[in-house]
Structure formats: structure tokens, C-alpha cells
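Same chain as my last thread, 230 residues:
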Amino acid sequence: MPTLDVFNIEGKKIDKVEVSDSVFNVELHKNAISDCVIQEQANKRQGNAKAKDRSEVSGGGKRPWRQKGTGRARHSSNRSPLWRHGGVTFGPELRSYYYTVPKKVKRLAMRSVLSDKVREGAVCVVDAFNPKEFKTKNMAQILVNLKINDVKSVKPANDEKLSKNKIEKLAMKRVLVVTRESEEKVYRSFRNIEKVTVLPSNSISVYPLAWAERLVITKDALLKIEEVLK
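reply #2:
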């Protein structure tokens, strides 16, 4: 069974937690992950693009000129797609992009992504988010304490000189913070930090997990996810 270290918000190791092989030590299934990511992105689409065809544009009831005798090509309506202000041929229609993926595939993809994060050492388990004050500055410092957004980890190539701002940008990782329940204070404190997303354990899905370079999760949330995915 994989064993993960548990840290406090100061970055000190205080405990260990064992997690299930059936959830956190699963083979990588790229097809399942791909299916779920595409489905999640498709379901976000609005599908409200619409163009009028020749039956929907205004005008066009009378022929522009008679059939014969003018020397010009025959036309039945000035709202044909050939004409200016005419209808659109095969234009976009209102539609829904929503579709579903089988629950078994979703659960397999979730286990697969979580297992891959554990193998990469990209999972950081935190005892709890309990700073003295819930401020963005304090939350940013927690990420530094956990060696996630740490400027010391940035090593310029070929002795390249980088500005302080550039180094800070390079140090920033895509971070997914997961709590057991929806915690407004934690969300509000993290939301102004670039590349950080906060979700409760019952709202995580495959795409945010695959997107994140680092997963910061509370111990309670980890155990709840394990219980659900077993």
C-alpha cells in the first residue's frame, strides 16, 4: 500500500497515511482519461451559435426579375445564399454538446490520474488549512512552505539572468487544492493566486486532476475520496 507523508501548514512532516492500492496504485489508462477530459470540456460548451437560413431571413417574397427576356441569370429570391443579405448555407444551429461517459470509465479515470500523481510525487497531504488569518499572503506562504511555489527550485539554464518577477512566474505550478467540504475562507484566500484552483472533495473530476501539476489535499479529503472510489 502506498504511504504518503502528512505535513502541517509550516511544511513540517507530522504524520503518515496509508492509502489503498485499488485507488492510488492503478495502472495508467490514457483512453479513459482522454474520454473523460473531452466529455467534461464538451459539456462546458454553450452551443448557442446560430445563423439564419434562407427561410428565416427577412424579405425575398418576390422574384427580383422575370424568368425570361432580361438576359440575366434566373433567380427566384433575393434571399438565396448566393445574394448579399441572403441566408446561410449549412450554417451553425442551436445544439447541445452534452453527453455522458459510463460511471465505470469515470471511476477508472479518477483512480488512474490519482495513482499517476502519487507515482510522480505530485501529491502533498496537509493536516488542515488553519492559519491564524485567512489571507492570500498567508496561503501563498503555505505553498512555499510545502515547496510547491518555491523560487529556490528555479534554476536558469546557461547562467541566464532572470528578473525576480520572471523567477516567481517560473516557480508557479498549476495547483489543485482539495478540501473535504466546501470551505469559503479557504477558497477566498486562494482564489487570487495565479494557477491555483480550490475544490471540495465531492466536486473534483478528471480534468482538474489531469490539469494540475501539484495536488494539495487535506487528510480528511484524501480519506473521503478513497472511500468513494474503492
